[in-house]
Records
---
Amino acid sequence: QVQLVESGGGLVQAGGSLRLSCAASGSIFSINDMGWYRQAPGMQRELVASITRGGYINYVDSVKGRFTISRDNAKDNAKTVYLQMSSLKPEDTADYFCKATDWRRRDYWGQGTQVTISS
Protein backbone atom coordinates (compact mmCIF):
# COMPACT_ATOMS: atom_id res chain seq x y z
CA GLN A 1 0.00 0.00 0.00
CA VAL A 2 1.02 3.55 -0.71
CA GLN A 3 -0.16 6.60 1.15
CA LEU A 4 -0.04 10.06 -0.40
CA VAL A 5 -0.32 13.37 1.42
CA GLU A 6 -0.58 16.63 -0.51
CA SER A 7 0.15 20.10 0.76
CA GLY A 8 0.71 23.60 -0.52
CA GLY A 9 -2.67 24.64 -1.85
CA GLY A 10 -4.23 27.98 -1.11
CA LEU A 11 -5.60 31.22 -2.45
CA VAL A 12 -3.46 33.44 -4.65
CA GLN A 13 -4.03 36.23 -7.12
CA ALA A 14 -3.77 35.69 -10.84
CA GLY A 15 -0.15 35.83 -11.93
CA GLY A 16 1.06 34.42 -8.64
CA SER A 17 2.77 31.16 -7.81
CA LEU A 18 2.19 28.13 -5.63
CA ARG A 19 4.19 25.00 -4.96
CA LEU A 20 2.34 21.78 -4.27
CA SER A 21 4.02 18.85 -2.57
CA CYS A 22 2.98 15.23 -2.38
CA ALA A 23 4.76 12.91 0.02
CA ALA A 24 4.46 9.18 -0.54
CA SER A 25 4.95 6.62 2.18
CA GLY A 26 4.39 2.92 2.61
CA SER A 27 5.48 0.64 -0.20
CA ILE A 28 7.31 3.41 -2.00
CA PHE A 29 9.74 0.98 -3.60
CA SER A 30 6.86 -0.18 -5.79
CA ILE A 31 6.07 3.25 -7.21
CA ASN A 32 6.78 3.85 -10.86
CA ASP A 33 4.87 6.90 -12.05
CA MET A 34 3.66 9.90 -10.10
CA GLY A 35 1.52 12.75 -11.23
CA TRP A 36 -0.79 15.61 -10.49
CA TYR A 37 -4.41 15.80 -11.54
CA ARG A 38 -6.99 18.50 -11.00
CA GLN A 39 -10.73 18.69 -10.87
CA ALA A 40 -12.68 21.90 -11.13
CA PRO A 41 -16.31 22.08 -9.96
CA GLY A 42 -18.57 20.30 -12.43
CA MET A 43 -15.65 19.11 -14.50
CA GLN A 44 -13.91 15.80 -14.97
CA ARG A 45 -10.60 15.15 -13.31
CA GLU A 46 -7.75 15.84 -15.74
CA LEU A 47 -4.07 15.08 -15.83
CA VAL A 48 -1.93 18.15 -15.20
CA ALA A 49 1.56 16.67 -15.19
CA SER A 50 3.23 13.33 -14.70
CA ILE A 51 6.73 12.01 -14.19
CA THR A 52 7.93 8.46 -14.57
CA ARG A 53 10.55 6.63 -12.53
CA GLY A 54 12.95 7.26 -15.36
CA GLY A 55 12.23 10.97 -15.39
CA TYR A 56 10.00 11.25 -18.45
CA ILE A 57 7.69 14.22 -17.98
CA ASN A 58 4.37 15.03 -19.56
CA TYR A 59 2.21 18.16 -19.22
CA VAL A 60 -1.26 19.04 -20.34
CA ASP A 61 -1.02 21.77 -22.99
CA SER A 62 -2.73 24.39 -20.86
CA VAL A 63 0.07 24.42 -18.26
CA LYS A 64 3.13 24.03 -20.45
CA GLY A 65 5.63 26.76 -19.73
CA ARG A 66 3.92 27.67 -16.46
CA PHE A 67 4.03 24.50 -14.33
CA THR A 68 7.00 22.31 -13.48
CA ILE A 69 6.81 18.83 -12.01
CA SER A 70 9.76 17.36 -10.18
CA ARG A 71 10.44 14.37 -8.02
CA ASP A 72 12.67 13.73 -5.01
CA ASN A 73 13.33 10.07 -4.43
CA ALA A 74 15.73 10.40 -1.58
CA LYS A 75 14.05 12.51 1.07
CA ASP A 76 13.31 10.83 4.39
CA ASN A 77 12.73 7.44 2.79
CA ALA A 78 9.74 8.83 1.00
CA LYS A 79 9.14 9.78 -2.56
CA THR A 80 8.02 13.35 -2.90
CA VAL A 81 6.68 14.93 -6.04
CA TYR A 82 6.32 18.66 -6.45
CA LEU A 83 4.31 20.86 -8.75
CA GLN A 84 5.65 24.37 -9.10
CA MET A 85 2.90 26.53 -10.53
CA SER A 86 3.62 30.00 -11.88
CA SER A 87 1.70 32.61 -13.83
CA LEU A 88 -1.45 31.20 -12.34
CA LYS A 89 -4.78 31.92 -13.99
CA PRO A 90 -8.32 31.80 -12.62
CA GLU A 91 -8.93 28.76 -14.81
CA ASP A 92 -6.30 26.90 -12.79
CA THR A 93 -8.70 26.93 -9.86
CA ALA A 94 -9.43 23.35 -8.87
CA ASP A 95 -8.79 20.63 -6.37
CA TYR A 96 -5.38 19.15 -7.11
CA PHE A 97 -4.74 15.48 -6.50
CA CYS A 98 -1.55 13.49 -6.40
CA LYS A 99 -1.49 10.02 -7.94
CA ALA A 100 1.05 7.25 -7.74
CA THR A 101 1.08 4.13 -9.89
CA ASP A 102 2.96 1.04 -8.80
CA TRP A 103 4.62 -1.67 -10.87
CA ARG A 104 1.37 -3.64 -10.92
CA ARG A 105 -0.38 -0.60 -12.42
CA ARG A 106 -2.36 0.01 -9.26
CA ASP A 107 -3.24 3.65 -8.66
CA TYR A 108 -3.13 5.43 -5.34
CA TRP A 109 -4.61 8.87 -4.73
CA GLY A 110 -4.09 11.58 -2.18
CA GLN A 111 -6.90 13.45 -0.50
CA GLY A 112 -6.46 16.55 -2.61
CA THR A 113 -5.53 20.14 -1.95
CA GLN A 114 -7.55 23.15 -3.00
CA VAL A 115 -6.09 25.81 -5.26
CA THR A 116 -8.04 29.02 -5.81
CA ILE A 117 -6.87 31.76 -8.14
CA SER A 118 -8.56 35.13 -7.85
CA SER A 119 -8.77 37.50 -10.80
Note: The CA atoms of residues 97 and 112 lie 4 Å apart.
---
Amino acid sequence: QVQLVESGGGLVQSGGSLRLSCAASGSIFSINVMGWYRQAPGKQRELVARITSGGTTNFADSVKGRFTISRDNAKNAVYLQMNSLKPEDTAVYYCNAGIGVGIYEYSYWGQGTQVTVSS
Protein backbone atom coordinates (compact mmCIF):
# COMPACT_ATOMS: atom_id res chain seq x y z
CA GLN A 1 0.00 0.00 0.00
CA VAL A 2 1.45 3.34 -1.08
CA GLN A 3 0.38 6.64 0.44
CA LEU A 4 1.16 10.25 -0.29
CA VAL A 5 0.72 12.57 2.68
CA GLU A 6 0.71 16.32 2.16
CA SER A 7 1.19 19.14 4.62
CA GLY A 8 1.78 22.87 4.67
CA GLY A 9 -1.38 24.41 3.30
CA GLY A 10 -3.18 27.27 4.98
CA LEU A 11 -4.35 30.85 4.79
CA VAL A 12 -1.94 33.57 3.74
CA GLN A 13 -2.20 37.16 2.59
CA SER A 14 -1.47 38.19 -0.96
CA GLY A 15 2.29 38.47 -1.44
CA GLY A 16 3.01 35.91 1.24
CA SER A 17 4.67 32.52 1.06
CA LEU A 18 3.84 28.92 1.86
CA ARG A 19 5.76 25.68 1.57
CA LEU A 20 3.97 22.45 0.77
CA SER A 21 5.45 19.06 1.56
CA CYS A 22 4.52 15.62 0.36
CA ALA A 23 6.02 12.32 1.48
CA ALA A 24 5.44 8.92 -0.05
CA SER A 25 5.43 5.79 2.06
CA GLY A 26 4.75 2.11 1.58
CA SER A 27 6.03 -0.58 -0.76
CA ILE A 28 7.99 1.69 -3.07
CA PHE A 29 10.52 0.35 -5.53
CA SER A 30 11.17 3.64 -7.28
CA ILE A 31 9.63 7.06 -7.83
CA ASN A 32 9.76 8.68 -11.25
CA VAL A 33 8.06 12.03 -11.67
CA MET A 34 6.67 13.86 -8.64
CA GLY A 35 4.50 16.90 -8.98
CA TRP A 36 1.90 19.27 -7.67
CA TYR A 37 -1.50 19.94 -9.19
CA ARG A 38 -4.24 22.28 -8.04
CA GLN A 39 -7.95 22.57 -8.45
CA ALA A 40 -9.92 25.73 -7.78
CA PRO A 41 -13.69 25.66 -7.30
CA GLY A 42 -15.46 25.17 -10.61
CA LYS A 43 -12.24 24.57 -12.50
CA GLN A 44 -10.36 21.56 -13.77
CA ARG A 45 -7.33 20.21 -11.99
CA GLU A 46 -4.19 21.68 -13.51
CA LEU A 47 -0.49 21.00 -13.32
CA VAL A 48 1.43 23.46 -11.18
CA ALA A 49 4.93 21.99 -11.25
CA ARG A 50 6.68 18.65 -11.58
CA ILE A 51 10.17 17.28 -11.15
CA THR A 52 11.79 14.13 -12.46
CA SER A 53 14.01 11.81 -10.48
CA GLY A 54 16.96 13.50 -12.18
CA GLY A 55 15.85 16.98 -11.15
CA THR A 56 14.35 18.30 -14.39
CA THR A 57 11.50 20.67 -13.61
CA ASN A 58 8.45 22.04 -15.42
CA PHE A 59 6.16 24.82 -14.27
CA ALA A 60 2.82 26.23 -15.31
CA ASP A 61 3.27 29.64 -16.90
CA SER A 62 1.15 31.21 -14.19
CA VAL A 63 3.62 30.27 -11.44
CA LYS A 64 6.97 30.63 -13.19
CA GLY A 65 9.32 32.84 -11.23
CA ARG A 66 7.21 32.56 -8.07
CA PHE A 67 7.14 28.83 -7.26
CA THR A 68 9.98 26.37 -6.96
CA ILE A 69 9.81 22.60 -6.71
CA SER A 70 12.37 20.31 -5.14
CA ARG A 71 12.60 16.73 -3.97
CA ASP A 72 14.52 14.61 -1.54
CA ASN A 73 14.88 11.17 -3.09
CA ALA A 74 16.21 9.68 0.15
CA LYS A 75 12.98 10.71 1.91
CA ASN A 76 10.65 10.04 -1.05
CA ALA A 77 9.49 13.61 -0.63
CA VAL A 78 8.66 16.56 -2.84
CA TYR A 79 8.28 20.19 -1.85
CA LEU A 80 6.63 23.23 -3.38
CA GLN A 81 7.85 26.64 -2.26
CA MET A 82 5.28 29.24 -3.16
CA ASN A 83 6.28 32.90 -3.02
CA SER A 84 4.49 36.10 -4.02
CA LEU A 85 1.18 34.34 -3.68
CA LYS A 86 -1.86 35.79 -5.39
CA PRO A 87 -5.58 35.30 -4.71
CA GLU A 88 -5.81 33.34 -7.97
CA ASP A 89 -3.46 30.75 -6.45
CA THR A 90 -6.27 29.76 -4.08
CA ALA A 91 -7.07 26.09 -4.64
CA VAL A 92 -6.74 22.61 -3.25
CA TYR A 93 -3.22 21.43 -4.01
CA TYR A 94 -2.60 17.76 -4.73
CA CYS A 95 0.65 15.86 -4.71
CA ASN A 96 1.14 13.29 -7.46
CA ALA A 97 3.83 10.69 -8.01
CA GLY A 98 4.59 7.98 -10.51
CA ILE A 99 5.69 5.11 -8.28
CA GLY A 100 7.17 1.78 -9.25
CA VAL A 101 5.69 -1.14 -7.35
CA GLY A 102 7.33 -4.35 -8.47
CA ILE A 103 7.56 -4.22 -12.26
CA TYR A 104 4.71 -1.77 -12.72
CA GLU A 105 4.38 2.00 -12.31
CA TYR A 106 1.26 3.56 -10.89
CA SER A 107 0.11 7.14 -10.45
CA TYR A 108 -0.72 8.03 -6.87
CA TRP A 109 -2.43 11.11 -5.45
CA GLY A 110 -2.38 12.73 -2.06
CA GLN A 111 -5.54 13.77 -0.26
CA GLY A 112 -5.10 17.45 -1.07
CA THR A 113 -4.28 20.47 1.03
CA GLN A 114 -6.13 23.78 0.91
CA VAL A 115 -4.25 26.95 0.05
CA THR A 116 -6.18 30.18 0.47
CA VAL A 117 -4.70 33.54 -0.47
CA SER A 118 -6.58 36.59 0.75
CA SER A 119 -6.41 39.92 -1.04
Note: The chain has a mean pLDDT of 95.
